[in-house]
Specification:
elongated, disordered N terminus
Length: 250
């Protein structure tokens, strides 16, 4: 098992991960040819490549044998680093530190669910941008994320919209951390009830928003409204943390 020090050393080793490599063409296992290709990043799931027709994530198995050999170590290092991070998240959660739990859950992979019909990512993040949030977009070939954040010095607010494509939404997660150390849930109630009132096909926004307000301080509160699951995670002790996950289960 790789130690943290070894992972760090490999990550810092010049040329170890080969990001920045350029190729006139790369022929994938299925015969697809990527012209003017450049490896922009190495991840635990494969290599990110840009080419004349676009870009995306290429798994190790899709690469030709000589490139599998070249990039295997870098991908393994990233996998080890991801596992290290997951272990740290589990350790933090075990100690029930509210702020750490919220941040760890924000980074954790969401369980796959059905698509929320009638809802686009723009419906979510543009709504919060109107309220002063800034959005970071992470568009991948297999998963896309839109991370909207706002920090006014008293609260750290986050809305992460996840989907399998740039036009689809499968999971929405919102979190509110009271940075002043108070257990007051007023800000979280306003922000998360607003998130719950997002409109999609067959949505019941008023009912969902009221359920959030009524259960904002109840840890592990769950309900299903019109086939969509709402799940609240609450740590009222200072610093106060409230989270809401919205997902359409399979």
């Amino acid at each position: 098992m790789m130690t943290f020090a070894l992972i760090l050393a490999l990550l810092l080793l010049p040329g170890a991960l080969h990001a920045g490599d350029k190729y006139s063409d790369i022929m994938l296992k299925d015969g697809t040819v990527l012209k003017d290709a450049e490896v922009t990043a190495i991840t635990a799931r494969g290599v990110k490549v840009t080419h004349q027709d676009g870009g995306g994530l290429i798994t190790l198995e899709q690469l030709p044998p000589h490139l599998q050999k070249k990039y295997r170590r870098g991908i393994e290092v990233q996998k080890a680093a991801a596992k290290q991070k997951a272990d740290e998240r589990e350790n933090l959660a075990a100690h029930q530190h509210p702020q750490a739990i919220a941040r760890a859950a924000d980074d954790a992979p969401e369980p796959a669910g059905k698509i929320l019909a009638g809802l686009s990512p723009e419906d979510v993040y543009l709504n919060f941008e109107k309220q002063g949030f800034a959005t970071e977009k992470r568009l991948g070939s297999e998963q896309c994320e839109w991370i909207s954040r706002q920090n006014d010095g008293t609260s750290d607010l986050n809305v992460t919209t996840t989907g399998p494509a740039a036009t689809k939404v499968s999971v929405i997660t919102g979190s509110c951390i009271n940075l002043k150390g108070a257990a007051d849930s007023t800000g979280a109630k306003a922000m998360l009830s607003c998130l719950a009132s997002i409109r999609y096909e067959n949505a019941e926004p008023a009912k969902a928003a009221q359920w959030v307000k009524d259960n904002i301080d109840t840890d592990n509160a769950k309900t299903t409204i019109a086939g969509v699951r709402f799940h609240i995670m609450a740590r009222p002790a200072a610093p106060a943390v409230r989270m809401l996950r919205i997902v359409c289960p399979k």
